[in-house]
């Protein structure tokens, strides 16, 4: 990922999506970001919460990313996932930064996975089958993200974040991105291992070091 050419797409311009965008921009990575609002309506919001991010249509969120980083971050509420066309992210590494909350009305395909007690990222991998899904960025609160991202710190002094994915190359790309953003990424295994990163898991919303995560890695 060239420092000058890297572009990451973000689907979702809420508090999490804009927190991710700020960290990426500080790391010298360009950001294309889409939401349910059209780009013109999103411009003022981004000037306040993610200055420098480029508002785009959902259908265009991966256009530049495909030719640079190959990465798109999914940061929309899970109850709105049916509004995301799988074709938008085809051919990318899709970082699943979403979580399941008890009061959400989930799409039927996702609720079925929850009912079967499957990690939700496995259901997303089926839904977005033309992308390579990697679970990451979901177990840190957006309110802590700006302070937690420390690209100037030694790797061993950074906050550790877990990464789960079935595709080794895709998982490696995401880990490289997290290093650029200022974290210490730790692979915990395939997508099934993503359960430990979910809201009821042992890693969720805890300040962690590498050794804390490795205790749970598969």
Automatic annotation (TrEMBL):
Q: Where is the signal peptide?
A: none
Molecular function terms in GO for this entry?
oxidoreductase activity
List, alphabetically, the InterPro entries matched.
Answer: NAD(P)-bd_dom_sf, P5C_Rdtase_cat_N, STEAP_metalloreductase
> Which SUPFAM superfamilies does the annotation name?
NAD(P)-binding Rossmann-fold domains (SSF51735)
Bilayer-crossing regions: none
Q: Which Gene3D superfamilies match?
A: NAD(P)-binding Rossmann-like Domain
Q: Which residues form the Pyrroline-5-carboxylate reductase catalytic N-terminal domain?
A: 8-99
Q: Which UniProt keywords apply?
A: Oxidoreductase
Protein's name in the database: Pyrroline-5-carboxylate reductase catalytic N-terminal domain-containing protein
């Amino acid at each position: 990922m060239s420092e000058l050419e890297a572009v990451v797409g973000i689907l979702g311009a809420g508090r999490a999506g804009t927190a991710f965008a700020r960290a990426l921009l500080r790391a010298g990575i360009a950001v294309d970001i889409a939401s349910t609002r059209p780009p013109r309506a999103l411009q003022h919001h981004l000037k306040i919460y993610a200055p420098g991010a480029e508002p785009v249509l959902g259908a265009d969120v991966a256009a530049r990313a495909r030719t640079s980083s190959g990465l798109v971050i999914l940061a929309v509420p899970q109850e709105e996932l049916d509004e995301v066309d799988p074709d938008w992210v085809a051919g990318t590494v899709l970082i699943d930064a979403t979580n399941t909350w008890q009061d959400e009305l989930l799409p039927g395909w996702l609720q079925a996975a929850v009912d079967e007690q499957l990690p939700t990222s496995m259901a997303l991998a089926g839904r977005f089958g033309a992308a390579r899904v990697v679970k990451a960025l979901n177990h840190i609160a957006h309110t802590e993200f700006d302070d937690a991202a420390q690209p100037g710190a030694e790797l061993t002094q950074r906050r550790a974040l877990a990464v789960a994915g079935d595709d080794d190359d895709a998982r490696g790309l995401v880990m490289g991105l997290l290093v650029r953003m200022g974290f210490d990424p730790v692979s915990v295994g395939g997508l099934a291992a993503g359960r430990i990163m979910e809201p009821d898991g042992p890693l969720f919303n805890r300040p962690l070091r590498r050794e804390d995560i490795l205790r749970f890695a598969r």
